[in-house]
Amino acid sequence: MKNEMAQLLTESPLRSVVKGFTWRLVATFTTILIVYFITGEQAKALQIGAIEFVTKFVVYYFHERAWLRVSFGQSRVDPERSPDFD
């Protein structure tokens, strides 16, 4: 039972990767647009966007995994009382 409850409070590393990737797509697109509007240079905007994507994706992944070790804001879920629990 203890292992089952622990699983309710954690996410897989793959979930962290997918969350990070989808967020980085949105955020990097925004960065590319901002750089393009400021510089007017498409190549520079794409270059900065690519560097920003890789760097922040790695930082986000480790940040997300570190937060799984913090109990702040977490609560236990009773699978028998939660209608949305599968």
Straight-line distance between termini: 16 Å
Which stretches are poorly predicted, pLDDT < 50 over at least 5 residues?
none
Mean pLDDT across all amino acids: 84
Helix content: 55-70%
How many separate helices? 3
Shape: elongated
Question: What's the topology here?
Answer:
Blueprint: H1 2-8, H2 13-39, H3 42-67
Report on this structure.
With 86 residues, the protein is mainly alpha-helical. It has a domain at 15-67. The protein contains 3 helices and no strands. 6% of the residues are buried.
Short description:
By secondary structure, this protein is mostly helical.
Main attributes?
mainly alpha, 86 residues
